[in-house]
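User: My collaborator and I are trying to settle a disagreement about how two of our proteins should look. Neither of us wants to argue from intuition anymore, so we agreed to look at predicted structures for both before our next call. Could you fold the first one, then the second, and keep them clearly separated?

Assistant: That sounds like a sensible way to settle it. I'll keep them separate. The first protein:
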Amino acid sequence: MKPINVGLLGIGTVGGGTFTVLKRNEEEITRRAGRPIRITVVADKNVELAKKVTGGACRITEDAFSVVSDPDVDIVVELIGGTGVAKELVLKAIANGKHVVTANKALLAMYGNEIFKAAQDKGVMVAFEAAVAGGIPIVKAVREGLAANRIEWIAGIINGTTNFILSEMRDKGLDFNTALQQAQELGYAEADPTFDIEGVDAAHKITILASLAFGIPLQFDKAHIEGISRLDATDIQYAEQLGYRIKLLGITKRTNGGVELRVHPTLIPEKRLLANVDGAMNAIVVQGDAVGPTLYYGKGAGAEPTASSIIADLVDVTRMHTADPENRVPHLAFQPNQLVDLKPLPMDEVQTCYYLRLRVFDKQGALADITRILADEQISIDAVIQKEPAAGEAQTDLVMLTHKTLEKRVNAAIAKIEGLPVVAGQVTRLRLEELGK
């Protein structure tokens, strides 16, 4: 049977892994797909690298636009990244009637609605398993494997860099900057780690998962995003004493008022499987009404793990290549005309539990003043740690866990607490998720 011809845009780490795995497992992949899948042309500015990786097995060009216009190319794999020229290339490929496979979560989170509409109009597929959690097949699981379920919530460790940093801070007692430097030295963090440590990368991914789970348009601009750069090792230690671990989570929940879409450091009970995912690994919990909680764990990045997802998409597209577009799996799990315009909730309206750490003067009545403010805002306390002041010091730490309450109530309480004469400096506030049903 005639092979499927693939044009590969970008042959860096992931592109090289894709070429290697596709060649190594060619026979197995052909048996699964029903016909050979071959990379016939590679576009990369580094022509010498491309020649070295491919060993002369395919045509090399610097001109990516020539690939998306090549009549002999059936599927374009976009691994350039970013949202500039990558967007142009993807839309041009679609306009030319080519299927697209991409690992570009930023592109899809920000412009996916436009891209999927263009693909739908043209009758081609855009596959993106590798855009979320690397080698973990979470997109297929949510979109197809859990199709019988009403998805209630998703919570995931979906950025390996931040998970590695938090693991080092907990296990070795490192401060944030030291742990980040170690992550960079080991290749887990980029020279400019901003997208990772400030939560943007995770927000791109949870935006995509929210659309798949709830059948809503992609709404990255509505996501609440907090990173870990201001996280203090002290809070990791207190969380441990209280029976919790701190992870950077992407969270999306269906509520009566809308959809929660948020990324932030989160306390998780140490008994939860998610709390015990360490190092650079990823893990995602999906709660469905029929199946209950399901956990997906694995490598969220790297050459061959990501290549695994890219090639799985190539196999899917190859299988469905000649199928009636109306009978293909919808890009965002739900039929395009069945998406609902459910808005993400503003953070003020989110309900969860909270961890509060205060520096207080060791004076009689300090705790009573603070608890009175919390009671006035209808916030109930679940647990308290109050340390004795160190010798010669007038201040000490007061740590509280609250029961579930509205974010706006916590914000109002914190503003009042910080105005108390017995409180020194700002209140540290982290959110807490039980992640039970």
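The second protein, kept apart from the first:
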Amino acid sequence: MGVVAHTDLVLGIDSSTQSTKALLVDATDGTVVEQASAPHPDGTAVDPRAWLDAFDAATDGLLPRAAALAVGGQQHGMVALDRDGRPVHDALLWNDTRSAPQAEALVAELGGPAACAATIGSVLVASFTSTKLRWLRDHEPDAAARVSQVLLPHDYVSRHVSGGEVFTDRSDASGTGYWSTAEDHWLPGLAEQAVGHAVDLPRVVASHQVAATTPGGLVIGAGAGDNAAAALGLDLQPGDVVLSIGTSGVASAIATEPVVDGTGSVTGFADATSRFLPLSVTINAARILELQSRLLGVDHDELARLALASTPGARGLTVLPYYDGERTPNRPDATGTWAGLTTSTTREDVARAAVEALLCSLADLVDHLSSITRLTPRRVLMVGGAARNEAVRTLAPAVLGRPVTIPAPGEYVARGAARQAAWALSGAAEAPRWPDVPSETHDAAPTPEVRDAYARLRDHESTAREEAR
């Protein structure tokens, strides 16, 4: 006999850069019943069919038990399909910066940064899907000519589950470069402009709606971009700022009106409800710590111990951690910079400088977000794998100059997707209310000198780049 689906169980999926994570959740209160994961290939260009294999592996034994499912996924990634639904090229992921020249060209075609932000809600950078389509047109014209339909990563996984239904949601659509966040609709002419001919785009489904139903009766929700799904999983409210430290670093906040930033520091995305999710992003985040751990030959626990054994400012060592290029600030061809290294620098100082660099880059994001949205943070929450590092947890309030609340470790993108699945299953007007996530708040004496040293190095490098041009 097959496994019978339980009407009180829903499945939330996080199809991230690194892996697929699946949470089987009690729809009534958000309790995690079971979870599993499967890895994705490394790299910034990936055959998207690998995500389907990872989905099948992570949901094996869980999918038949669920009454509803929704997929949260990495934003921006270009999944370009031919008329038979086959990829014409590897998916270029959000952190693939090869399309930086195309981003500049498209911004110019839209009339400059301010006009670009007014049209789509954001200033295009290499992360956005449209820039990757333009790169495909410029560098792989035969493949570009075969593009019939363009999906986002979470759309592609949802299509796999639904048996061919193609849909997305407004949160992920708002990161493509051909969606109007203010007016809530596609701008198909911009997709055509990017790739060189008209392409099919997914229908857009609201979070409370059923996007598809399988022959077996599984309800499928619209899904969401990963940051919007995490905001739903944490039940983010106006005044909350979430710092997510994964492959990328993200500062996000809920807004009730569209946000337009002509400087490009803040992107004006939509959220997974009917509101908006302005956010600021760095390409380099957890990998800052991974690199330093590798260079020192230690694990993350030992890196934290070393960092906490040094002093604020790492005895003069400052790191600008733009190792893989950067998105905020927009320096796609940047590399990392170390300043103040001397013969008296210790392993402890090197570890401390890495943690402080990560936190300073995140503090810059919070400043950008607060300035553009004019929202005073009521509280700052920190989530993601690197938030579990003891040095990050301890030093964050000192560098940010404010208390930091750290929810209990959890898969909040998958939790948000599960909450969306429960919402679609219920047919209610509002998302189900689940108990607050347990959390702890950390505080420390501020260390403004750390941010001052970081800002001097950041601005010096910016001036040097301008002069080199």
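Some points you might bring to the call about the second protein. The CA atoms of residues 276 and 468 lie 38 Å apart. The chain has 15 helices and 24 strands.
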